[in-house]
Structures are given as C-alpha cells and as structure tokens.
C-alpha cells in the first residue's frame, strides 16, 4: 500500500501521542534514568516500528507489539471479586481471604495501539490462519507471564480477558466490517450489472423498433421500384438487389438484437420519438397505402408502438397491400390486405413478442392473426393504464 503524505502525517502524530503515554506511565527519568531509558525507550522504539509497518501489514505490527502487550496485570479496566462460597464483591474494599480479586482487561500504555492493529488485521486480512497463528503466539506469551507470576487463578482470568479484549474482539470487529463492505460492494456491482442489462435491452428494442421499421420501408420502396414501368432490365435488377439487401440487413439486425436482448428483463423501453400521424405519413411516403381512422379523443399511450409494429409487419409480410389503422381509447387495430409482391420477411422475428409483453405490462390484451386474405393486429388498452415505458 502506497503511503500518502497525509497518512505519513497521521502515523507520526500517532507515534508522538503513544510515545508520550508510554513515557508518562513509565519510570521516572530523574529517579532511575537507566530504567527509564531501557523501559520507555524500548516501548517508543517498538511503537515506531509497529506504526511504520502497521498500515500495509497490520498483523506484523501486532507481532512487533507482543513484548509490550497486555502483560502488566497491576491496572485493569475493572476489578471483580468472587467468593467461592457463592457471594460476590466489587470495588476497592479490602478483600477477605475467601474472595478472589481479578483484574479484567488490563490497561497498558500500548493498549490503543495493540487494539487498533488487531482491528486492522481483521479489516484487511482475508486469510484466517495467520491471525490464528499470531493469537496462538500471544497466548503462549500470556501463559509464560502467568507462570512467571506464580500461576495464580486470578492471573489466569486476567490473561484470558486480555487476549479477548486486545486481540480476539478487535479482530472480529474488523472482520465484520470487512464482510459488510464486501457485501455493499457486491450489491453495488449487482445494481450496475442490472443497469447495463436494462441499457442493452433498451438499445436492442430501440434498434428493432426504429431501424427495423426503416429497413422494412426501404424494402417496400425497392419492391415498388422493381415493378415500375419504364425501367431497363439492369435497373429492375438493381432494384431487386436493393430489396434483397434490405431484407438481409433486417435479418442481421434481428440477430444482433437477439444478442443484445436480455430475456430476464421486460423488453422494450423507448421507440422513436414521433407521433402516430408522423409515423403513418412516413409509411405513405415510402409507397404504402395507409388509411387512418382516429377517434376525437386522447390517443392511447400504446398507439405509437402498436401502429409501428403493424406497419412494419405489413411492409415485410404483405408488400403492396392496403393497410387500415383504427385508433380509439378502447381499441387499437392495424389490418392489411393481401400482398401484391414477394415477402421480404424471414422467420424468427421478435417484434410481436416484445409488443405483447409491453401490452401485458400496461394492463391490456393483444390478439394477432390472419383475417380473410390479410392480417390484423388488435390491442385493447385498459383505460387509465399508462404505458410503463412511456412509449
């Protein structure tokens, strides 16, 4: 981990504060200078080494601070007394012989540093066994300290509370913090992945709705030009090749849309930005024979998408056929007659499938199928139910 200037400043300040605490709680330099230099100087040196390596390698800092760990049992966060006959006493009162005074969580000048680096170990170290090994080493040191003090029962209690308070609990808190951060990061990644899938779906259906419609109209114009009078055989052949090329481009577009589409998400999100009148006028300009019956009422939100899909299918499957569009608040229909030319459509399209899903999400119903010598697409939108994708 690269040490930034502010991190260096924080580490120096931490070392100065911890050094002052170590000096204040150590031997008096005026009474015993040599002991002050050995004890306090050793603490300051170990603190400096631990802080120097603690940011990138907190477990190494824990090992360095083992000699100045919680092995001084004279002061503790609490003093508890047990009466083996069943009573209990606490405080600074004089203890009877039947009571056992125990120091809980011994306090030393290096307590904050040891706890901090144990917490950082749990926060940054994913592997468990190195931390377990260091805890075993600390336990061995604690056992040696207790044996050196005479192996009294109260010292065993103090040593266990020291191991738990200095090493185990801070490490577990750091590990919990690491797990929570990992879960939050995974949640953010999941949200980003869902957003990418929705964007792919939007792109796929926008390509299908707009480009597919335009390519179908190009094929219709090319088919009309192919049978127009006054063309030379070469020109008619070129028009036919243009019609076939438009049909092949439509098929390639369908394949690309199939790769982009996410089957889990409800499909289309946004068609081209134009109203039904402009859509019909563009189809007429391409050579389609389209008539419109529109009730004098607000146009249903689904009308644009339904009319677009109906005109596209008519252009591909029934070139040259008449098309009748009827729009009312309670019913939208697109019907075409018999084809006058060869179909440019290829099997496997997904336009009606996407439209059916959109209608279902809007709370409506859709039917599509042959009627007489033509085809009819009918959608019954529910009144007051807007298109969920703002079509």
Automatic annotation (TrEMBL):
Transferase listed as a keyword: yes
All residue ranges annotated as the Signal transduction histidine kinase subgroup 3 dimerisation and phosphoacceptor domain in the record: 199-263
UniProt keyword annotation of Phosphoprotein present: yes
EC nos: 2.7.13.3
Domain of life per record: Bacteria
Catalysed reactions, semicolon-separated: ATP + protein L-histidine = ADP + protein N-phospho-L-histidine
GO molecular function ontology, one term from the record: kinase activity
CDD domains documented for this protein: HATPase_UhpB-NarQ-NarX-like
UniProt keyword terms in alphabetical order: ATP-binding, Kinase, Membrane, Nucleotide-binding, Phosphoprotein, Transferase, Transmembrane, Transmembrane helix, Two-component regulatory system
Residues spanning the membrane: 7-24, 44-66, 128-150, 156-176
InterPro entries xref list: HATPase_C_sf, Sensor_HK_TwoCompSys, Sig_transdc_His_kin_sub3_dim/P
Protein name per its UniProtKB record: histidine kinase
Organism: Nonomuraea mangrovi
């Amino acid at each position: 981990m690269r040490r930034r200037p502010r991190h260096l400043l924080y580490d120096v300040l931490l070392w100065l504060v911890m050094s002052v605490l170590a000096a204040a709680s150590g031997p008096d330099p005026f009474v015993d200078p040599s002991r002050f230099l050995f004890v306090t100087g050793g603490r300051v040196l170990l603190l400096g080494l631990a802080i120097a390596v603690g940011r990138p390698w907190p477990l190494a800092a824990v090992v360095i601070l083992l000699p100045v760990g919680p092995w001084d049992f004279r002061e503790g966060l609490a003093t508890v007394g047990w009466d083996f006959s069943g009573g209990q006493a606490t405080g600074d009162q004089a203890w009877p012989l039947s009571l056992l005074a125990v120091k809980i969580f011994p306090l030393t000048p290096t307590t904050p540093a040891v706890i901090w680096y144990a917490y950082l170990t749990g926060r940054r170290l994913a592997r468990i066994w190195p931390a377990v090994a260091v805890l075993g080493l600390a336990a061995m040191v604690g056992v040696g300290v207790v044996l050196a003090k005479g192996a009294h029962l109260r010292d065993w209690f103090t040593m266990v509370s020291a191991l738990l308070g200095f090493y185990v609990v801070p490490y577990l808190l750091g590990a919990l913090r690491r797990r929570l951060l990992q879960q939050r990061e995974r949640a953010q990644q999941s949200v980003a992945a869902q957003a990418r899938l929705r964007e792919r779906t939007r792109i796929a259906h926008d390509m299908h709705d707009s480009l597919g419609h335009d390519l179908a109209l190009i094929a219709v114009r090319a088919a009309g030009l192919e049978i127009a009078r006054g063309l030379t055989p070469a020109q008619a052949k070129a028009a036919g090749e243009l019609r076939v090329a438009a049909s092949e481009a439509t098929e390639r577009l369908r394949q690309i849309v199939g790769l982009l589409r996410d089957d889990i998400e409800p499909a289309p999100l946004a068609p081209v930005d134009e109203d039904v009148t402009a859509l019909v006028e563009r189809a007429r300009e391409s050579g389609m024979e389209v008539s419109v019956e529109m009730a004098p009422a607000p146009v249903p939100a689904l009308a644009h998408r339904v009319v677009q899909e109906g005109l596209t299918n008519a252009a591909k499957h029934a070139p040259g056929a008449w098309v009748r569009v009827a729009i009312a608040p309670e019913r939208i229909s697109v019907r075409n007659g018999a084809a006058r030319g060869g179909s440019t459509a290829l099997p496997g399209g997904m336009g009606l499938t996407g439209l059916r899903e959109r209608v279902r999400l809007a709370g409506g119903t859709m039917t599509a199928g042959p009627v007489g010598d033509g085809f009819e697409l009918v959608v019954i939108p529910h009144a007051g139910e807007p298109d969920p994708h703002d079509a």
